[in-house]
Design a protein that fits this description.
The chain is mainly α. The protein contains five helices and two strands; from the N terminus they run ααββααα. It is globular and about 45 Å long.
């Protein structure tokens, strides 16, 4: 299974690298890969939420015996573990494929960063919308920019640490 994921990650990197040259002077290849995989996972998140909310839960509350979750919160509760896993796999096998950290440790660290980003989103929206009276959509965009930056550096220096020299990422096509 691991070799299939590694090969798939390599192929995604090759395809994504084709679109990298116009962005070369603005960002590193690793940051570009991070952006592409993050955007892909975000779109997957939106589609999954839509499908779960409208077709699985059919906009009904999620009754779990001892507790009932409203349909939108129940949908979020179902999708979070899926999106966490797809995001982790994309980052592990596409963006930070050179990391030498053990997968179990990476997943634990990735989950911590994921949880921190959820908290930044929650408290950032509460602050900007409820306390400062800003509009929700621009506030969400602002907080998203903050979480993307926090997440990238957290994943790079905490979750997927590597001792590989910087230039190695540029030469991944040689594999």
């Amino acid at each position: 299974m691991s070799s299939i994921l590694e090969e798939t990650g390599h192929n995604i990197r090759r395809i994504t690298a084709f679109f990298y040259p116009p962005f070369r002077k603005y960002m590193t290849l690793q940051f570009f890969l991070y952006g592409v995989t993050g955007a892909a996972n975000l779109v997957f998140d939106w589609v999954l939420y839509f499908v779960l909310y409208n077709y699985v839960l059919q906009q009904r509350d999620l009754r779990m015996g001892f507790v009932t979750l409203s349909s939108h919160i129940g949908t979020m509760a179902i999708k979070i573990p899926v999106v966490l896993c797809t995001g982790f796999l994309l980052q592990r096998y596409v963006t930070f494929f050179q990391s030498e950290v053990v997968m179990r440790k990476q997943l634990f660290r990735y989950s911590i960063v994921f949880a921190v980003n959820l908290l930044i989103n929650y408290f950032g929206l509460k602050l900007l919308v409820d306390n400062f009276g800003f509009w929700p959509s621009p506030s969400n965009v602002t907080i998203s920019i903050v979480t993307v930056i926090v997440s990238y550096f957290s994943q790079k220096w905490f979750t997927f640490q590597t001792s590989t020299p910087r230039g190695e990422l540029q030469r991944f096509r040689a594999r």
